Amino acid sequence: MNSILPEKPYDALIATITSTYDQGRLRAVQAVNVQLLETYWQIGRHIVEFEQAGSAKAGYGKSLIKQLATDLTLRFGKGFSRSNLIRIRQFYLLYPKGASLPHFLTWTHVVEFLKIDDPLERSFYEQQCSRERWSVRELMRQKNSALFLRLAASTDKEGILRLAQQGQLIEQPGDLLREPYVFEFLKIPEPYRVSELQLETLLCDHLQQFLLELGKGFTYVGRQYRITLNNTHYKVDLVFYHRILRCFVLIDLKINEVQHHDIGQMNLYLGYFANEENIEGDNPPIGIILSRHKDELLVEYATYQMNSQLFVQKYQLYLPNVEDLRRELELTLQEAEE
């Protein structure tokens, strides 16, 4: 650096200014988001109150939104298309107590919420988005992969309502589980031809999306993690550490149906990690075998009186059938009412 200024103090100054600028810019963006949401909510309120007062029939009739889109676009330019005005009006109707959403959410986030008809499902994505600070892209991916329906399909009415009110809380090992896990982001063409090692490699190549599918709190440790017992080497496909549960999470991948010896092998891994890898403060490790197919009876017998931290879960390479999951959810809620 050609300067009479001391290099290290000057570099520190640059770093400090950069940090301050980035933080200020982030706060400015958040302030703009908050103000935009408040503005759109108020505009939605004006439109609805105009309609309810009967003015729409007198002046514009059913063409109110269309006329507003034309006039407001001429006056302000972008932001007042017919489709956006419909969403703005819907925003007010669905959030009548005010636009009290987390500051980091953008109008694009809100539009994704507004596309969800079911209030329980919409509430879940709002809560989960707030908890995990999803980007719009992440929110869209989780909606498309039917995360709420997948979680809700494996619980009862109380669990479904709790999901809608609080999002997915991670308090015990079972809270980590989803069925099926969906790996559509790998874009493996049908009919798939992939080995366990190739699947493992693809998941590591798409680690960000894989971590999003696993859920909040996972930290990647390694793949083909070697452990040695009596000069015999074993390898765990994938090892993670869960920050919230404070424990290792071991994952083995199976492209075919899981067998009893796969369960025994995972139990061995769990025993090794509990005794050889855990340090003070770590909780017992969790083992998840991910398989394309699962024989429930075999799993029940193979895990009889075995480690309660061992789970066998299904995964699929393509998006789930949303309508089937929705019917299952509706059936659960109906049965609870009877």
Automatic annotation (TrEMBL):
Per the UniProt record, one Pfam family is DUF1016_N
Q: Which domain of life is it from?
A: Bacteria
YhcG PDDEXK nuclease domain spans which residues?
176-329
Q: Which GO terms describe its molecular function?
A: nucleic acid binding
Query: Which InterPro entries does the entry mention?
Result: PD-DEXK-like_domain, tRNA_endonuc-like_dom_sf, YhcG_C, YhcG_N
Residue ranges of domain YhcG N-terminal in the record:
17-150
Residue spans crossing the bilayer: none
UniProt protein name: DUF1016 family protein
Per the UniProt record, the source organism is: Thiothrix unzii
